């Protein structure tokens, strides 16, 4: 694994990198998602600067997204943004604000999170309750290769790599009281240009059965034909991809209730998170349950969505 410090150092002006972790309890009732972002691709403030043609360094817009779920209820949720001085990275660790990731030699990943959540329309005012907890993802048994998801006409490439397809996962929060054990997943995305300039939309889902995992990714790039990727063990296959019928999720977003990559089909079981431009859900694939997401970058660019993001996101110092 490339070290966090080296990964950040090699990012160009319009680039980004994020580290993603999720977990689902054994009974499927509780879920966890955390994303650490350098060059926070979903920041309305970064987006406004990019549209004005300003040079934007990724470290000037840092982000931490944290979500805790129980059944169809959000126990805690935040999308916080931090300035460059709140970043620290070395060979084995990454810190943004009060949140930390530690990568061990054995392949395990540990995190400590301390941030705040707030209701819609009050986040931007700095209100909110504390979110404070920790998680651990055990080492995975395989590491698939890097996938190039898209390449824009200007040469900007966008990549994805599964770091831990499936491993034992445990999370415990003091505030709020929230904990579970189950199976977890970890991957990374990085690119050399704006996300919305390379993609229209995508769907992604992962399920696991012990250490075995199956991950699907269906991308619709702005330039080129839709395509999909199937990750199994340490192999990646490129296949045709398609989306099923869409349904309104609220906030104006229409999300597909299923998508297919090759002969594999992931189906939405129940929603975890519904926003104006993405939806997260419990997914079913091959009779097993995991986590899935749908992202609509056409909607992300709309002025009304950018306005709402300023009220849903938080800028912290």
Q: How big a fraction of the residues is strand? A: over 45%
Strand count, sense and barrel status of the largest sheet are: 13 strands, mixed
* Series of H and E elements: HEEHEEEEEEEEEEHEEEEEEEEEEEHHE
Q: If helices are DSSP runs of H or I spanning 4 or more residues, what is the number of helices?
A: 5
Shape call: globular
Structural description of this entry:
The chain is mainly β. Helix content is about 10%, strand content about 55%. It has helices at about 5-10, 45-50, 195-200, 295-300, 305-310, and strands spanning about 15-25, 30-40, 60-70, 75-80, 85-90, 95, 100-105, 110-115, 130-135, 145-150, 155-175, 180-190, 200-210, 210-220, 225-230, 235-240, 240-245, 245-250, 255, 260, 265-275, 280-285, 290-295, 315. The chain is globular and about 45 Å long. The mean pLDDT is about 95.
How do you describe this structure in short?
With 317 residues, the chain is mainly beta. It has five helices and 24 strands.
Name its key features.
317 residues; mainly beta; 13-stranded mixed β-sheet; 9-stranded antiparallel β-sheet
Per-chain topology:
Layout: H1 4-9, E1 16-25, E2 30-38, H2 44-51, E3 62-70, E4 73-82, E5 87-89, E6 93-96, E7 99-103, E8 109-117, E9 129-137, E10 147-151, E11 157-175, E12 178-191, H3 195-198, E13 199-209, E14 212-221, E15 227-232, E16 235-239, E17 241-243, E18 246-248, E19 254-256, E20 258-261, E21 264-274, E22 278-285, E23 288-296, H4 297-300, H5 303-312, E24 314-315
Parallel strand pairs: 4-24
Antiparallel strand pairs: 1-2, 1-12, 2-3, 3-4, 5-6, 6-7, 7-8, 8-9, 9-11, 10-11, 11-12, 13-14, 13-23, 14-15, 15-16, 17-20, 18-19, 20-21, 21-22, 22-23
